[in-house]
Amino acid sequence: MVLVGLGSADGLEVVSVSAGDGAVGPARFTRWTPLRRSTLAREEVAAARIGRFIYVVGAFTRLNSPDQSAARVLERYDIRRNRWRRMRSMPVSLNHGAAVAYKGKLYVHGGWPSQPEFFTSAGLYRFNPTRNRWKRLPSSPTPRAAEAAAVIGHRMYVAGGANDTGSLRSLEIYNFRTNRWRRAPNFEGPARNHARGVASGGSFYVLAGRKGHQLRADPSPAVSYRAVDRYDPRRHRWRRMPPMRRARSGFGAVTVRDGRIVVFGGEDWPNDVPGAGVIGSVEIFNPRTKRWGRLPRMRTPRHAPAGAALGNRIYAAEGSTKPRAQGPTRVLEVLDVRPR
Questions:
Q1: How far is CA 66 from CA 61, 101, 130, 215, 306, in A?
Q2: What's the number of domains the chain is made of?
C-alpha cells in the first residue's frame, strides 16, 4: 500500500491509497491500518497536531533504562507525505508530559524528568516550527506529570496528574495572550494521574486515569478509573459525565471533527495481577447524547501512545505493547471514524 497526498478539502489534508495497478481513490480506513514507522521506539509520549503535521515529544524508551535520550526528542510526522523527521530536541528531558497546539505553535507542560522517581516539573515550553526553536515560558503554580490538558479559545486547561503530594484533582489555566496562570475549581471526581484531557463543544474533559501503588507520596491501593469530568469555562463549573465502558490509564484520547471523543489503548492498573495488561479496546463518546459506544479494536494494543486527529481520522503513534514501558514501539496506525 502506498499513501499519496491529494491536497486538502475543507482545510483538511486528504490521504488516499494507491492500489497495485496505479489506480488512486479516496481511502477510508475502516480498521486500524499501519503507516510509516516513527524514527524512535518509545512510550509515555505527548503529541499535538499543527496543520498537516503531528508533533510527538518526550517519553522514555524503556523503564529504568540508563539511556533516556529519547526524553528530549521531538519528531514530526507529515500526514500528506507519510514521512517522519527529527526536529530540534527539547531543552530538557521529560516523560509523562502534556502537549497542545495553539496558533501554529507546540506547547509542552509538566512531566517527570528522566524517571518518575525524580522531581515533577511545572515547566512550560513553546516550540516554534517555523524557526525550529524552543522557548521557556512561565511555570505553572503546581508541578504535575501524567496530567490532562487541552486548549479552548486562548487558554490552556491543565488538570489532575501527580506530584510529590500524590494524585491531583486541581485545575490551572494558562492564558496564551497574557502569559499568566491562574487557579480554578478542582474537579469533583477522584484525584488521578495518567488521565487524558480533550476539548469538545467549548468544554474541557478529564478522562479516566489511575492512582496509588507507584508513587511514594501516594501509597494508597492501586485503582484505575472510568470516571469522566467536564468543565464549563463559561460557568466555571465541573460536572460528572457518564463513565467510560472500561477503566484505563495511560491511553490515547482525541476529539474528531464533529465533537465526538475517542479513547484508545492504555493499561490496567495495577498491572501485576492476573488478567491485567495492555488494552486494545476503543471507545467513542457523543457529548450530545452522553453515550459511549465501541469502535474497532486497535491493531497493535498499546499503553501510553500519542494521539492526534485530523477531521474524523485518528492517529495512534508509538506507545508500549507491554505494561510498565517494557515494549516501546515505533508503530503509527490510523483509523477513520464514520461520520454521524
A1: 10, 31, 33, 20, 23
A2: 1
In Å, what is the CA distance from 149 to each residue of 42, 96, 155, 274? 21, 12, 11, 32
How many other CB atoms are found less than 10 A from the CB of residue 130? 7
Residue 316, CB-side half-sphere exposure with 13 Å CA sphere: 34
Q: 17-47 burial string, b = 16+ CB within 10 Å, else e?
A: beeeeeeeeebebeebbebeebebbbbbbbb
Residue among 97, 91, 184, 107 nearest 143 (CA): 97
Give the neighbor-by-neighbor strand order of the sheet with 306-310: 33-34, 332-336, 313-317, 306-310
Task: Tell me the C-alpha distance between 120 and 148, whole Å.
Answer: 15
User: What does the pLDDT look like over 25-44, one tens digit per residue?
Assistant: 347 899 999 999 999 999 99
Half-sphere exposure of 181 (CA within 13 A, CB side): 17
Residue 331 is predicted with a pLDDT of 97
Name every residue whose Cβ is closer than 8 Å to that of residue 20 and which is 6 or more positions away in sequence: none
Give the domain range for residue 23: 2-336
State the pLDDT at residue 167: 93
C-alpha 126, offset from chain centre: 17
What is the distance in angstroms between the CA of the first residue and the CA of the last residue of the chain?
28
Tell me the CA distances in angstroms from 169 to 40, 124, 172, one per residue in order.
33, 19, 10
Mean pLDDT, the chain, integer: 89
- The cell for 293 is 459506544
- Sign of torsion over alpha carbons 101, 102, 103, 107: negative
Enumerate the β-bridge partners of residue 98: 109
CATH number at residue 55: 2.120.10.80
Quick check: 94 and 111 in contact, CB under 8 A? yes
| Strands 171-175 and 203-211, bridge-based pairing | unpaired
Residue 235 has pLDDT above 90, yes or no: yes
Edge to edge, the sheet with strand 74-78 lists 46-50, 53-57, 74-78, 83-87
Cα 129 from Cα 119, distance rounded (Å): 29
